[in-house]
Amino acid sequence: xxxxxxxxxxxxxxxxxxxxxxxxxxxxxxxxxxxxxxxxxxxxxxxxxxxxxxxxxxxxxxxxxxxxxxxxxxxxxxxxxxxxxxxxxxxxxxxxxxxxxx
Length: 102
Prior knowledge:
By secondary structure, the chain is mostly beta strands. It has one domain. The chain has no helices and 6 strands. The chain has strands at 16-20, 25-30, 44-48, 51-55, 68-72, 77-80. Strands 3-4-5-6 form a 4-stranded antiparallel β-sheet, with no helix packed on it. It has a two-stranded antiparallel sheet with strand order 1-2. Strand 1 and strand 2 (25-30) form a beta hairpin.
C-alpha cells in the first residue's frame, strides 16, 4: 500500500531482523529492551563490525527522539552509544546518516 492510501498503517517496531540477502532467509530476530530502544519509525542506522547504531526517529506518541543507540549483535544487547564529546544530538526523524571511516 502507498502512504497516500487511506488504509495505510504505519508500523512502529523495536525488533531487529538479521536477514541474509544472498539466501533470502531470516537469520535472527533481536528484540531490544524497550527502555533503551523504544518502538520507532523514520530512524536511521548503520553497522560497524558486529554492532548496529541507530539515531533518532519518532515514537507512536509523536515524540521525536535524539538517542544514539548501539545494538551489539553478538550479545543481543542495546545500550546508549558513547559519543566523543558531551554535545547532545538534536532530535531528528526522516534524516540521512552515513558512516565515515578515516
